[in-house]
Structures are given as structure tokens and as C-alpha cells.
Amino acid sequence: MQTSTMPVLECRNLGISVPxxxxxxxxxxxxxxxxxxxxxxQNGAGKTLSLHTIAxxxxxxxxxIRLQGAPLxxxxxxxxxxxxxxxxxxxxxxxPATVFETVLAGRHPHVPALEWESVADRAIAMDxxxxxxxxxxxxxxxxxxxxxxxxxxxxxxxxxxxxxxxxLDEPTNHLDPQHQLQIMSLFANAAAKGAAIVATLHDVNFxxxxxxxxxxxxxxxxxxxxxxxxxxxxxxxxxxxxxxxEAVPWRGQxxxxxxxxxxxxxxxxxxxx
Length: 273
Fold this sequence. Notes:
The protein has 273 residues and is an alpha/beta fold.
């Protein structure tokens, strides 16, 4: 993993709230180049709102955010887009376009005003499509794709943007197991080459496998941050998800599985066969 001395992202005393409820209180976070940070928590704990706040799409309740040392509030949307790419949970298409045109839009922050995308820009877009196994569908209408195919196009668009920081909201959303693993490996490789990755995940085992650090959001202001191996434990995850979580040995590692009391009782029953 390659890291630099200046963080790509800094959150100082960051507070995130919704009416009547504080989701994240006084978050202190620094993410360097080459890091893969996973954000874990229950539905409604503030994972998506945290990404949207970091991306500058909503105001924090308290605190500040800096990108490459510069206050987020002092940067234009174009400047932000050159550093940061946000992959939302779901994508809506309001205008007809081909798969290639949709992915090529990721180059817009880098294209000078009143100019068209260059040959190099188009090559970057095609490389991104190749990396997510969508190059053969580059001329398809975006509206004809399945949910998983559309997700891979959105990921390719983020890759085409070539940012320093990827903010990924459930990147494996809509994907089958093969492509879930492919996409997680793709972003792990991007981190190994120097990009900073911040991803919200529901799959604890993907976090355990790919993330260098994890941020746990409890949804009531509390949060915990630490190295993946240290912070992912049965007790913490059981508290985080409000359900028993067990670590199961697997190929010299461990998998975390939900083990509700009803499941435990069912599994302990003698077989009738």
C-alpha cells in the first residue's frame, strides 16, 4: 500500500444529524492515499449521509472537511470532482444515452470548457468498461440494461473520473457474487496504486477481507475507528448490528455470521433423518 504524508481527506469534529437526531458526533477522520476504509452500521445509522456530507452535497451539523488540505467550502464543484468521485447507491437516467456516452461523462471535470473529450479521454472510458466486463455493450442504450449491468456502468463512470478519492455507497449493490468480488478487488487494486477508498458496506466479510481500516457508526452519535483486524470483533459487531454475531474459522481466517438466538436453537436440534 502506498501512502503520502498529506491526507486526501480530513474530517475535523464532523457532526451529521437529521431533525431530532444526531447520527455522527465529532468525527475525527483522516484518510491517506492508498487506504481502503470501510464504513459499517445498521440501516439509518448515517452511512450514506456521511458520504454525501463528505462529498459536499449537504452541510455538516458541525465541523469541517478538507480535501488535499483545502477546505471543502472553498472549492468549486469542478475542483471537487477532480479529486473526489461519489458512487451513489442507485442511479437514475433522465436522458437517453449509450453505455459508452454514460461512462465518458466521468471525464467532464477534466475536459476544458467548450471542448470535446479527447482520444485519451475516450481510451480511459473504454479501459474502465473493460475492467467491469461491459466493453461489449458499449453501444447499448443505458435504459436496456439490467440492474447489475447498470451498476457496473456507474462504477466504470467513477473509474473514468480518475479521482484521488472514491466515495462508494454500497458498491456491490445489485451485483451477483462473481461481480461483487470483481468490483471489490478492482477498488482494492486502485488503493494499492495510490487511490483512497471510502466505502459503505453491508457485508462485514468484504470489509474484513479488503479494508485496511473500518469506521463503525452506531446511529446515535457514537462511532469507532481502527484497524480492521483489531476493530472487527464479535462483541463490537453484535453491538453495532443489535444481533449476535459470531466469528467462524474459514481457511485460516474468520468469517462473521449473524447468529440470532432462534437460529442457534434450530441448529442445535437433533436431525430427524
